[in-house]
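Feature request, filed as a ticket because there's no other form

It would be nice if the structure record came with a short human-readable summary line next to the tokens. Right now we just get the raw output. Example of a typical job, pasted below so the devs can see what we mean:
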Amino acid sequence: MTVGDMLTRAAAKFPSKTAVICGELSLTYRQFNQRVNRLAQALLARGLKKGDRLGLVCQNTHQFLEIYFAAAKTGAIFCPYNNLLTPRELADLLGYSGPRILLYGPQYEDKVRGLAESLPTVEQFVNLGQPAWDQAADYEKLLAAASDQEPAVEVTPQDVMSIYFTSGTTGNPKGAMRTHNHLVTTAYSGVIENKIGYGERVLIVTPMYHVSFEDNIGRCFLVPNTTVIYPSHFEPAGALRMLDQERITCCLLVPTMINAMVHSPAMERVDLSALRRVFYVGAPMPVELLKKSMKTFGRFGCGFCQQYGATETGPLTTILLPEDHLVEGPPEKVGRLASAGRAVLDYQVRAVDPQGQDVAPGQVGELVVKGEAMMKGYWQMPEASAERVRGGWLYTGDMGYLDSEGYVFIVDRKNDLIISGGKNIYPREVEEVLYEHPAVLEATVVGVPDDYWGEAVRAVVVLKEGQEATPEEIIAFCGQRLAGYKKPKAVELWQELPKSASGKLLRRKVRDKYWEDRQRKI
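Raw output as currently delivered:
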């Protein structure tokens, strides 16, 4: 099966079922499939060939889905770009991935037009709205003039379906190549592990260019469900209202979004009784925040499910099921709230030492994974691909350990390790304690230059509205719960922490502030 087959089969079996809702627009599976076919036929008529890259820059919209499936049915390789990139950053990614056709939202016309002369591979531009630029085609006019017949292109499971780009927090973004087989495997795994049925209404809040969205696509269209698109930048009250009004049953969020919802006054005014599952992804969830979130959403009967992975891994690699979210019981079971769960059915996970040998249960090593949904490699980066995938195992760069029953505990990113006076300190361990403080809303911990210790632990904290705490009080609080060498040597109070467009806290950006004048950045 290919990604395009998922939609074709769903439209044949459930033609009248609502497939997509975006603002005032509602499309059945038959209507949605017809629009996808029209777009695919229009792109083929304009010269798109199997293997060509099809680029897209836009906000969350139903057209994103249409372009995704049109790429699947034509054999093109779908390349979604972060819509918040600067012109220079976008030009670099476009030059790297080399799309032949670039589609874009109307709000990005000036940016795209300004780059046009520096994009040698892009032969055609398509505006999703009404273009004011005479070199750009009108998306809806293309569809109106095209046939809605299924494209006659032979697409195989081994063909590359998409290139999703890494965040680039430790260097330039890399394009992870994902085949149709990878994506269908992830879809099957996600449906089985999450017990997805035919009646789900799924809210898309995270940016659609992020790899977690592609994971959502598989689950929604393999077992036909209704995809509801949150059409603007995340805002907690607005997202809560949509969960209520659209009677959403499943929603995928990052921890910072959940944190904002839990502390939003709107939480007291909504009915989320239809919501049965919140998936949290993208970053570690502090245990104290998780407990508070479970209590807040739990009054509606909603369960929580953690999914761990990366752009390179599918992304669904391990899962902590709702039944593993225990706040009472044997300590070893309650302690699993701090874990990322166990490997999903198509994956294996190990923790290894620098020589690639397994470490004992409970001992920290680098997490390596193997599965059917792993990337094929990085686009045009054979050396980086070989470094990341060795002996069939993908080295994640995450440090962690497995307990005796296979639960995976992620300690921290390999590159975020703080070494102070020769001792290893994992920022996440300190952050977990900071989140226990009643006045702390958000926190991140970094290593900063220290002439004596090499690095010193520093915490950057955002306080809850109306709450007060001094840096000295927070340091003392940590000192009661951590070994002396682990507690922050300093605490800074900020109004906000830097986040990616997907809501992930950017610890590296905080860290770089303290190392920018240093030649050596350990």
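Something like this underneath would help us a lot:
The longest helix spans residues 29-45.
The longest strand covers residues 440-450.
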